[in-house]
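The protein record quoted in full:
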Amino acid sequence: MEVNNGDGVGHSNMSRKVIDEENSAVVIPETAHQISSDSWFQVGFVLTTGINSAYVLGYSGTIMVPLGWVPGVIGLIIATAISLYANSLVAKLHEFGGRRHIRYRDLAGFIYGRKAYSITWALQYVNLFMINTGYIILAGSALKAIYVLFSDDHVMKLPYFIAISGFVCALFGISIPHLSALRLWLGVSTVLSLIYIVVAFVLSVKDGIEAPARDYSIPGTTTGKIFTTIGASANLVFAFNTGMLPEIQATIKQPVVSNMMKALYFQFTAGVLPMYAVTFIGYWAYGASTSTYLLSSVSGPVWVKALANISAFLQTVIALHIFASPMYEYLDTKFGIKGSPLAIRNLSFRIGVRGGYLTINTLVAALLPFLGDFMSLTGAISTFPLTFILANHMYLKARHNKLTSLQKLWHWLNVCFFGLMSIAAAVSALRLIAVDSKTYSVFADI
């Protein structure tokens, strides 16, 4: 492979070019966004914001209910370990070949060539688009939960709240120019996460103590159980992985690899404990009847539940910005949006382009508000390939001459196993969507 121009640090105005095996150039532009400026601690909070987003309020219903106690607990622990391992592989390749690869597709293009660059970008776009769509559904569900607490007229439907959520997310996205600019908002996000996690935990404990014996059996027919189990495995990996690790790592200060490893260890130690707690206690308290949005299941003072739902809504707005940032970076870089965020051209561009992007997200969210289905399909068609299949194979190819035969076999086993899991999970998710489509109409109020 022949490489021309650039040091990969992101401070030059010249484009770098990676030449693949067919001598077809992949143009890799220098980013318009700020990079190499954040501490590992800040990046750790970026990762933790994702893992403890309001999605965590659905894991007791979308993971524990289909799997049951033993497989559910073991599955979460295994998913934690393999996710940390896979993410560490990608993190260690960030400076492969003597340059920084600040985008997932840049790394894939450098290792494989032009086709892999395009395929990786497509997979990542689908992954992040669906995650963002799910966030807007979550935000709308939180707003509806607040409305239901204070009104029983049912005039306002879920699609209305999804539209409101999309508008607020767009305002936030327009206001924050790039990922590093979140800074203070990451602290706000942490506080908001703790509010709804603590409320869900405490109220679930109260309900669990007072409730009669719960049913922990896995619901459904034998065939249905098989498909829901496979779908839940996709939800397991979805819970821990961003699909945009190089983009997050691009913001970190040198030394980028060791600092990123610190951030990952922070995410997978302190970060997972609140998620474990609220997931397990929710299932313990409500069993197979656990809602896919835990705050809908709990009983308690109205003002406490309102506070928790407001926190979930606001945290979702912040978390969505993280997963939308690669698309923002792509658009800003492509159209040369640099300089002051308040410059008329830059501000009007963000209003029009970011607002338009989130309008599409919001429309899809309102059309198909099936949260569990989004998690399953996203995990199947993009999180599995990006986080496990590609991570292992890229590492295998990049470090081929330095790996023992046993290590090579291990990575190939991972590639094959997760490839089969990806196919099975995609089939399961599509079946789930087909079943739900018979139950719910478009723009459903669920």
